[in-house]
Write a structure and sequence with these properties.
With 682 residues, this protein is an alpha/beta fold. Helix 14 packs parallel to helix 17. Its cofactor is heme. It catalyses: 2 H2O2 = O2 + 2 H2O. One of its GO terms (biological process) is response to oxidative stress.
């Protein structure tokens, strides 16, 4: 790797360093650098007199405060982000000339923002919703943005309908309710009357819409793009992020309770994981399709409501991204970052997906209003690591100080510079696709199948996943007031699966449809979360423990759990230290009042010989909540007696034992499984 490339790989962090300001220990100044002698009282005409207009410090301070907020994003307003780096595993030269995908020794800086879609910036994070998963690669050829979601398809096929979709899913305008929720009339009225949404709705009502964490969800580019190599040969490509920890979700009751107990649950999880050194990791995968194979499937590969089944077009894993640094300032970085699917580098190009084509306009347009003009690229978080030169000038918030008299092309006064670069010099050249057609407002016939992949998704689900989808339908449609809309939706989804539609109809009081059904038998096991990686790493376990516990055994178990990557946190009646019978002390992390069982992945009940009746009552609540959410439960000592009293000891995922090593092994295995769906709820 050349010295220049080494420099570029680190330059984003170095570039941001010059904008970091640590005010600690410094004297206060105005924004012009004038030292301030007083910051508590405004300048007045006498101690009890009126404030004077000449108080420039007051006016500067108040004016800045009045303008501290920028318009929140219309969608993806509730987000959180982190810095990291990406390395390709092997050169992709055969398929693309993008330089950051060539050299496995190069680390490309990245910035990733995760988000919900429908809610406002202050909404809860565990709502049922699509999650944004957008990555900015700071490459030596310029910024490349992979602007994606955690679901590989979308509600609509053409971008012209995007305002309608968002108007429908946002709080209803007459009463501004409900917040961050799709369980209301206008959204489901849109679904029933825009049936291209069928496939997306199946994903939206699945466990994918309530992820356990940002660290445990997939990311998808959604659209069909092109890779183009240095010979000009193109392949269609879809891009995937595969979390190293696997894909895992919450259960609906748990997600709702977390929204009240900790509305910052997902951002807290990401922040704390990075601070602890448990860096989130995602592998980049690509599905590649030769241009000559464009029409060999029973769906249109440009249709954004369709996936390319991984069994038909395998995902090739080509690199890994590691998020290893939290932001210094959420507003300056997370809120001001500007993503755009049109930010590409040589070797990456577009397809004619009509949803993608519309996004290529919309993203620039929205940044102009959010970030105050055309210079949003000059904000520190958006600046590329490579230099940029053009004849664009002035405008709001211009930070570049351009020298010289020339700001136009062509010119002779500056030897016609800056000048365009040839393709050999790294200039971006659009792929020369042949286009031959009439100007029409129409949808391709190949886009008119709305139900086959929705049925394939249903066929791919395990029985617990199917039950969760049914429950989600029942909840969402149960919140809809219009009987007409309810019936329309039930009739619509009879085209996906007749038994599904009938079951939902009975639950919500609609008329069960008699016609419909599908003869599609194909499935795609890759879309089921039952087939994901199952690891114990970074799982949080609440340890319920009191004074006079068995010190030696408990400390051995806690150490063994930590050695497996599990994160134990001590829960008891009060903060401070707990003392074991042998004098061992444990620091309490939470009380029963300050934490809740829904915030843990598993519960380990230990107890102690000095517990009160209230202690047992609080512990029983934790155990029952975890049990009813199908979570792993471990118990030793007095905790074992509690489970026996609750008649839980013979249930799947409940681990009790006398031998320490056997207990740890079985409990870790239960934690890795994530949920135990065969459990009968008591």
């Amino acid at each position: 790797m050349t010295n220049e490339r080494k420099m570029n790989s680190n330059s984003k962090q170095e570039q941001l360093e010059q904008f970091r300001v640590n005010d600690q220990g410094k004297k206060m100044t105005t924004n012009q650098g004038l030292k301030v002698s007083e910051d508590e009282f405004s300048l007045k005409a006498g101690e009890r007199g009126p404030t004077l207009m000449e108080d420039f410090h007051f006016r500067e301070k108040m004016t800045h405060f009045d303008h501290e907020r920028i318009p929140e994003r219309i969608v993806h307003a509730r987000g959180f982000a982190a810095h990291g780096e990406f390395q390709v595993y092997e050169s992709m030269k055969e398929f693309t000339k993008a330089k950051f995908l060539q050299d496995p020794t190069v680390k490309t800086p990245v910035f990733v923002r995760f988000s919900t879609v429908a809610g406002s910036r202050g909404s809860a994070e565990t709502v049922r919703d699509v999650r944004g998963f957008s990555t900015k690669f700071y490459t030596e050829e310029g910024n490349y943005d992979l602007v994606g979601n955690n679901i590989p398809v979308f509600f609509i096929q053409d971008a012209i309908k995007f305002p309608d979709l968002i108007h429908a899913v946002k709080p209803e305008p007459h009463n501004e309710m409900p917040q961050a929720a799709s369980a209301h009339d206008t959204f489901w009225d849109f679904v029933a009357n825009n049936q291209e949404s069928a496939h997306m709705i199946m994903w939206h009502l699945s466990d994918r819409a309530i992820p356990r964490s940002f660290r445990m969800m997939e990311g998808f580019g959604v659209h069909t793009f092109r890779f183009v190599n240095d010979q000009g040969k193109a392949h269609f490509v879809k891009l995937h992020w595969k979390p190293v920890l696997g894909v895992h979700s919450l259960v609906w009751d748990e997600a709702q309770k977390i929204a009240g107990k900790d509305p910052d649950f997902h951002r807290r999880d990401l922040w704390e994981s990075i601070e602890m050194g448990n860096f989130p990791e995602y592998e980049l995968g690509v599905q590649l399709l030769a241009e000559e194979d464009e029409f060999k499937f029973d769906f249109d590969i440009l249709d954004p409501t369709k996936i390319w089944p991984e069994e038909d077009v395998p995902v090739k894993i080509i690199g890994k991204m590691t998020l290893n640094r939290n932001v210094d300032n959420v507003f300056a970085e997370t809120e001001q970052v500007a993503f755009h699917p049109g930010h590409v580098v040589p070797g990456i190009d577009f397809s004619n997906d009509p949803l993608l084509q519309g996004r290529l306009f919309s993203y620039t347009d929205t940044q102009l209003i959010r970030l105050g003009g055309p210079n949003f690229h000059e904000l520190p978080i958006n600046r590329p690591v490579c230099p940029f030169h053009n004849n664009q000038r002035d405008g709001y918030s211009r930070q570049t100080i351009n020298v010289g008299q020339v700001s136009y092309h062509n010119n002779s006064l500056a030897a016609n510079t800056p000048s365009p670069a040839t393709e050999a010099e790294g200039g971006y050249v659009h792929y020369q696709e042949k286009i031959d057609g009439r100007k029409v407002r129409a949808r391709s016939e190949s886009f008119k199948d709305h139900f086959s992949q929705a049925t394939m998704f249903w066929n791919s689900m395990s029985q617990p996943e199917k039950e969760h989808i049914i429950q989600a339908f029942n909840f969402e449609l149960g919140k809809v007031k219009s009987k007409l809309v309810q019936q329309q939706v039930v009739d619509m989804f009879a085209n996906v699966n007749l038994e599904l539609a009938r079951t939902v109809a009975v639950a919500i009081g609609a008329v069960p449809p008699n016609a419909g059904g599908s003869d599609i038998t194909k499935s795609s096991p890759a879309v089921s979360q039952e087939n994901t990686k199952k690891l114990p790493n970074t799982r949080k376990v609440g340890i319920i423990i009191g004074d006079d516990f068995n010190g030696a055994e408990v400390m051995t178990i806690l150490a063994a759990l930590q050695a497996e990557g599990v994160q134990p946190e001590i829960v008891s009646e009060k903060l401070g230290k707990l003392k074991a019978l042998d004098g061992t002390e444990l620091e309490v992390n939470h009380t029963f009042l300050t934490v809740d069982p829904v915030l843990f992945d598993a519960i380990y009940a230990v107890g102690g010989t000095a517990e009160s009746k209230k202690f047992y009552k609080d512990a029983a609540y934790f155990i029952h909540e975890a049990f009813n959410h199908y979570k792993p439960i471990g118990a030793t000592h007095e905790g074992k007696q509690w489970l026996e009293m609750e008649k839980m000891t013979n249930s799947p995922g409940v681990v009790v034992g006398e031998d320490v090593n056997e207990f740890v092994s079985a409990f870790v295995e239960a934690i890795a499984a994530h949920r135990h769906w065969s459990r009968q709820i008591v």
